[in-house]
Specification:
The protein contains 4 helices and 23 strands. The chain is an alpha+beta fold.
Amino acid sequence: MNLKANPWRRWMLVGAAVLLVAGVLAWALRPAPLAVQTAMVARGAFEQVIEEDGVLRLLQRYTVASPTAGELQRPGLRVGDVVTAGEAVLLLRPAASAMIDARTRAVLQQRLGSAQAARAAADAQLGRLQAALAQAQLDVRRQEALAQAQFVSPAAREQAELAQRQAQQAVAAAQAERRVADFALSEARAALSLADGGRTDSGVWTLRSPVAGRVIAVHHESEGPVAAGQPLLDIGDTERLEAVVDLLSGDAARVPEGAPVTLQVGAGLPTLRAHVARVDPVAFTKVSALGIEEQRVNLHIALDEPWPARSTLGDGYRVDARIVTLALADALLVPTAALLRANGQWKVYVVDADDHARSRSVTPGPRGSEFAVVEAGLQAGERVVLYPGNGVRDGQHVVER
């Protein structure tokens, strides 16, 4: 072929070569598709949960305390022992009196002597008044005999009877004074006996269990003196337990009473079904592991049914609680990893049929740890980009990783 004879053909070949080179360069320099992870928007059940650890606690704990100051005998019970209601659990002897000095002992001895002298005076006074009463009784009998013979007037007989009644009252008063002297003498003897170190084992207190259960704590394991009101023994029913979980006050405000709870005691053990029985109306301050002060609230969780192996549970055991604050049977769900906050709005990147990422605004509802409820902006069956970050742009070509 003679190209010089046909210049148009030569230019056509040159143009075709240029276009071919430009196409190859355009193909080589075109942007590669971005590899991303995607997930499908689907309908399903949704649960909003709070997971926190707590402890098991006895529903009712009874503390046996010392009713008075005394000396406790060595307890025979240990933690875990079973007791019945009304069973004797502790013995308490009266406390020994304190030691005194010689001056105080001398004062008590003088007080005893004074009480003995007062008793002797009361006996003498009573004897004198009893003699006066006997004389008055003789006078009454004599006046009655003379009055029958009409040798004395009725007035004289009445005066004799009045004198007899006065003598009887005087004898009664003397007897009362002697009893007072007896009590004072006994008190002085008792004080001196205690001061001399006298001790008696009478009056031992027997402390009994108020309920049937097991011993939870022994506060005083050895024999020794105890004060009035001092706790000695804790008793409770280990088959009646509740779980106590403390939550941040913001989380506790979202937990309704009666919310279902799942408790896990330990690995390999069955879970416990329970519910929130009560949310405390007051919060307390607790310092976290990072040294931050937090306001926390206690939740009291009750078991729904007895557990077959509940005898292995105990007061203070740690449990993991999963509290359901919201449950929806049918909701449109999107992974929380696909949600992106931009300009005050939530959006996702939807992968269209041509494998291009398209930005779309959505209205999310309640969110959980893995999924969120979509109220508007998406439909079931659409694919969304997970973890879009700043690398994904609207209309960008993407490929499934």
